[in-house]
């Protein structure tokens, strides 16, 4: 029996395993003692390990013990980018690690990621890496307002980010005195946001899903629609060309997600994720090979599957209650299960803003799908805003 070990035990690991069990794969999940693992209940073996201790030791024997505890997997993969790269390097002594440790190293740190994109001539927002408040002020002098300041690490879903609209905002950022360094970016006046999800197998085969249009609120993805409506053919081609450059540079294996700002027909790349991505969840119910299956095929070096849906597909996220939603989602109940879509629940406990599940909706008619997605959004959040 072939075994995949996943570093992490969240919803992405869950959906990877749900797909992989169907392919005849077995799973183990490497989690730390304080990590919640309900998402992967009953999907494989949970291996709880003290990574601090392991990395302090750092010996080949210590990594070998972990490799054995994981069930001597054929492949090790990740479901998040905040993974110690030395852990990946240590495990790579014994088995394949995909994506490779260097790809995770490059993409888990915003400054390294932006520098990688620049090196490959992939357009981004204008940015400066800042280590001191004086550096931040220098970026302000160059770019003007508004600005985005983002911590280079531990930032996701809008966390560890500051939007600077005034000098007072800049002063309050300085008073807060958060830990740097940061990437300071010029605020991009984009028309919309889109992401490209692609996969590259160990033998170098590549596939791309159509660009997906994404709507965020308060820095968190709320809904997606694919293929992104009314995009020029050049936009899609450019996005794929950028990702091909990244695949080649990083010798990348697995699914890669690239989040972009769309400005007219131009794309600016905002962020990379070396893993399956929330904006690709629609692929699970699209009559094609899902991002999870293609990720597993890529890392197992199997032929990749069809990525082209036969019509418009969409997704709405179900976020934790209280400050973001009017409902109190605990577990699926009648009010959730409308006939419009298919329901995915991650088995997590409710916390404000936490991703608890999603609903995929498809319709052959784009306008009808947009109405259905907006209605689902309204039902969940009571907001009708579209931007
Ligand atoms: P990030 O954590 O970089 O993915 O940013 C979260 C969200 O903040 C993005 O999806 C955008 O909606 C917004 N955002 C981030 N950076 C910028 C920027 N430079 N200009 C305008 N909006 C941004």
SSE map:
Layout: E1 3-7, H1 11-22, E2 26-31, E3 45-48, H2 51-57, H3 60-69, E4 75-78, H4 85-91, E5 96-97, H5 101-107, H6 110-119, E6 127-130, H7 133-143, E7 147-151, E8 161-164, H8 167-176, E9 182-186, E10 192-200, E11 206-208, E12 212-217, E13 220-226, H9 233-250, E14 254-263, E15 266-273, H10 291-300, E16 313-319, E17 341-345, E18 355-362, H11 366-381
Parallel strand pairs: 1-2, 1-4, 2-3, 4-5
Antiparallel strand pairs: 6-9, 7-8, 7-9, 10-11, 10-12, 10-14, 12-13, 13-16, 14-15, 16-18, 17-18
This protein binds adenosine monophosphate.
Adenosine monophosphate (AMP) binds next to β7 and β15.
Provide structural commentary.
The chain has 387 residues and is of the alpha+beta class. The protein has three domains: 3-97, Rossmann fold (3-Layer(aba) Sandwich), CATH 3.40.50; 126-186, ATP-grasp fold, A domain (Dna Ligase, domain 1); 192-381, ATP-grasp fold, B domain (D-amino Acid Aminotransferase, Chain A, domain 1, 2-Layer Sandwich), CATH 3.30.470.20. Helix content is 30%, strand content 26%. The chain contains eleven helices and 18 strands. Strands 10, 11, 12, 13, 14, 15, 16, 17 and 18 form a nine-stranded antiparallel β-sheet that branches. The chain has a five-stranded parallel β-sheet with strand order 3-2-1-4-5, with helices on both faces. Helix 1 crosses helix 10 and helix 4 (85-91) packs antiparallel against helix 5 (101-107). It is globular, with a radius of gyration of 21 Å. The site of adenosine monophosphate has 15 residues, from strand 7 and strand 15.
């Amino acid at each position: 029996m072939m075994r995949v070990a996943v570093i992490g035990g969240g919803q992405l690991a869950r959906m990877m395993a749900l797909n992989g069990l169907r392919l005849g794969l077995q799973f183990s999940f490497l989690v730390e003692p304080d990590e919640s693992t309900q998402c992967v209940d009953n999907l494989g073996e949970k291996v709880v390990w003290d990574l601090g201790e392991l990395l302090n030791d750092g010996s080949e024997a210590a990594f070998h013990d972990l490799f054995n505890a994981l069930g001597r997997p054929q492949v090790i993969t990740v479901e998040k980018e905040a993974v110690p790269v030395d852990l990946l390097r240590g495990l790579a002594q014994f088995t394949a690690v995909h994506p490779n440790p260097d790809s995770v190293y490059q993409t888990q740190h915003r400054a390294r990621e932006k520098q990688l994109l620049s090196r490959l001539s992939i357009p981004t927002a204008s940015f400066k890496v800042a280590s001191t408040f004086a550096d931040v002020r220098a970026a302000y002098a160059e770019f003007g307002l508004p600005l985005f300041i983002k911590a280079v690490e531990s930032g996701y879903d809008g966390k560890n980010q500051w939007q600077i609209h005034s000098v007072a905002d800049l002063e309050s950022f300085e008073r807060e005195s958060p830990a740097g360094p940061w990437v300071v970016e010029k605020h991009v006046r984009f028309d919309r946001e889109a992401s490209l999800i692609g996969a590259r197998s160990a033998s170098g085969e590549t596939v791309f899903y159509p660009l997906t249009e994404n709507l965020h609120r308060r820095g968190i993805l709320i809904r997606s629609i694919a293929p992104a409506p009314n995009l020029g053919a050049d936009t899609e081609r450019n996005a794929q060309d950028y990702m091909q450059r990244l695949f080649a540079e990083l010798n990348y294996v697995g699914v890669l997600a690239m989040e972009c700002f769309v400005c007219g027909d131009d794309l600016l790349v905002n962020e990379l994720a070396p893993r399956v991505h929330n904006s690709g969840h629609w692929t699970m119910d699209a009559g094609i090979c899902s991002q999870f299956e293609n990720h597993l095929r890529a890392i197992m070096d199997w032929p990749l599957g069809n990525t082209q849906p036969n019509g418009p597909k969409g997704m709405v996220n179900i976020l934790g209650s209280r400050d973001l939603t009017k409902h109190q989602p605990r577990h699926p109940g009648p009010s959730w299960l409308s006939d419009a879509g298919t329901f995915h629940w991650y088995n997590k406990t409710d916390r404000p803003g936490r991703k608890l599940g999603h609903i995929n909706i498809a319709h052959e008619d784009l306008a009808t799908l947009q109405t259905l997605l907006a209605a689902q959004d309204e039902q969940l959040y009571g907001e009708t805003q579209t931007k």
